[in-house]
Every structure is written in C-alpha cells, then in structure tokens.
Specification:
340 residues, six-stranded mixed sheet, six-stranded parallel sheet, 12 strands, elongated, alpha/beta
C-alpha cells in the first residue's frame, strides 16, 4: 500500500492508468494481471469460490467506471465472483436492505460506499461480523470496516480550494452544494476546501443539500443565484452537482460571472470545463475503487498477511482537470466507459 505522498506522486501518470480497461494485462497498481497490489494471486485458498459484492451509494454514471474496475478484477481472479449492487433509492435504509440480502446469500466480502456513515455504524458493524467489510469512495472510520479504498477526500478538498483561490483571486462569496453533509467524503472535502482558503477573502456562505435529487440540486443553485445576486463562486461536492451548477448558471446567463469548481467527471461537467464555464473539476479514479477493493478483499480472504494496510487506508490519488487537460482526459475516459 502506498502512503499518501507516494499516491499523490502517481498523479502525473494517472491518465495512462485510466486506459487500462478490461482488456489490459497490467493492473493499475503497477503489478501484473492476476496479482494483488502486493503480488499475491489474491484468490481463495480453498475450493469454494469467494462471493463478493460491491455496493454503491447511488446510481450516478460515476459508478459505471467503478463497475469496469470490478469486472476487471473479477475476470483476473479465478476463484472469485463479484456482484455489483446499485441502490434504486440512495438512502441508508435501502443500503441496509441490500446488505441484508447479500449477507443472507452468504457473501464473503462487501465493498460499500456508505450513504451516511455516522448513522450507519450499527449496520456496518453487524455486516462486518458476517463478512469482510471494506468501505470505498466514502469512509466510515468509526465502524469495524477492515479498510478504506478510495480518495483522501480532505486532500482532494484542498485541491479544490486551491482552484477556487485561482478562480477568485480577489475573494468573494461562495455557496457549496452536496447531496448530504453526513457522508464522510462530503465532510472531508468541505474541510479540505476550508483549510485551503483559510486566510483568503473567500467566504463560504452555506452548504445546500439536495438528498441526491438532481432537480433539487439544480433548483438550489438557481435559488442561490437569485437570493445572493453577488455570489462569486459555486462549489459542487458530488458528481451530479457539477452539471446542476453548470446548467443553472448557464440558464441564468451568468457563465463567466460566477466561477465554478466541482468534483468528478460527468459529461456535462467536462463540457463545462471545456467551454470555460467551470474553472476546474477534481476527479477521482472510480475504476481503481472497484479494482482495488475486490483485489484487497480477495487477497485478505485468501490469507495474504499484508493485504490490509497497517493504517487500513488504501489511498487512490486525485487529479485536477482544467481546460488545457480536458481533451486528453475525455479521450481516456471514453475508452474506459467503452464509448470509443
């Protein structure tokens, strides 16, 4: 497992890693096909195949990329089968129902992005007693999860904060938008942004939530543009917030007048970066969330002693995509999504 500084050093090569796809014989961690990040085969040690599951927190296109990573790991591991589970309703209650169903099927391991980690501790701990539990995308550090695979969201937030300072060198009022403030990734990203802008003239007015309702996400932005006419910047913390902000600003005729910084790589977000309406988006590597989560669980269940990092964190680096980088990134992303 690479520590954070080593992971961030990988950022320069991350676009090349994204092109691996399902046909590649080389894993994103730098090893060879069929091996875990530490070099083990990561397969079950007995004749019974491992039954694993990868559970998302919503149905965003973000997870289409993660599915590719899951499928590649599944294909590489001879004695593993993985079920990809996407909730129709992005709530803690629906996730509990799905996890209960998986446990009833006798799964050996689950990689989950908790909707509301602070409120799901009991559910996560109960699951961890019956199967190996790994969090991915959004951590639940106070639970009994075996490890977290994903972004250092506070570091990603600091990246977004630095881009916000570039976009607003003289400061100004900023509104932040997200599905839920309870999710650990949202809290960490906001904390990172606040760290980065400390001492500047940028003022975060509030955080508006939308419960992952895209219509509400857009109306929150539209309402802000009316109620705070001198708002200078808008920040979207979750993947669909970028398109919601972009479209609301465009419809209000305020492209260029209000600066936008967001996260992830939805098509409309990248279009906004390309036409200059969005200053920057901080992208994760959901492909690696899928790939590395499955590999880690399989290796640990197969008896690999050092499969779980000592600090229980397997950090996947993030990239800042700006107008000068978006074309190459889009081309690589299209390959990963199977659109090229």
């Amino acid at each position: 497992m690479k520590n954070l500084s080593q992971s961030l050093a990988m950022a320069a090569s991350v676009l090349a890693l994204l092109t691996l796809g399902c046909s590649s014989g080389e894993q994103a961690g730098g090893g060879t096909a069929g091996t875990s990040p530490g070099g083990s085969t990561g397969t079950a040690s007995n004749s019974q195949p491992l039954k694993l599951a990868f559970v998302t927190n919503n149905s965003s296109d973000f997870w289409t990329i993660a599915r590719k990573g899951v499928e590649k790991a599944d294909a590489e591991l001879d004695n593993v089968s993985v079920e990809f589970v996407m909730p129709s309703d992005p709530t803690a209650g629906e996730q509990k129902r799905l996890v209960d169903d998986l446990l009833a099927k006798g799964v050996d391991g689950i990689a989950i992005s908790p909707v509301s980690p602070a409120n799901q501790t009991d559910m996560l701990n109960a699951a961890a007693k019956q199967a190996m539990l790994v969090t991915q995308d959004s951590d639940a550090p106070n639970s009994d999860r075996a490890a977290y695979v994903g972004t250092d969201n506070k570091a990603a937030g600091r990246q977004a904060g630095e881009e916000l300072k570039k976009a607003l060198p003289n400061g100004g009022k900023v509104m932040v938008f997200v599905g839920s403030k309870d999710a650990q990734n949202a809290a960490d990203r906001l904390a990172g942004i606040q760290e980065a802008i400390a001492g500047s003239n940028i003022q975060i007015l509030d955080v508006r939530t939308d419960d992952t309702d895209r219509a509400k996400a857009k109306s929150n932005v539209a309402d802000t543009l009316v109620s705070v006419p001198d708002v200078a910047g808008l920040v979207g913390l979750w993947s669909y917030n970028g398109p919601a902000i972009y479209n609301a600003v465009r419809e209000a005729g305020k492209v260029g007048k209000v600066k936008i910084v967001c996260f992830d790589e939805e098509d409309e977000t990248l279009a906004g970066v390309q036409d200059g309406a969005i200053s920057a988006t901080v992208v994760q590597q959901p492909y690696e969330f899928g790939y590395q989560s499955v590999k880690l669980i399989a290796a640990a269940k197969g008896g690999k002693a050092d499969a779980i990092p000592a600090n229980k964190l397997q950090i996947v680096p993030t990239l800042v995509i700006t107008k000068d980088k978006v074309e190459e990134f889009k081309a690589n992303l299209a390959k990963l999504r199977g659109r090229s």
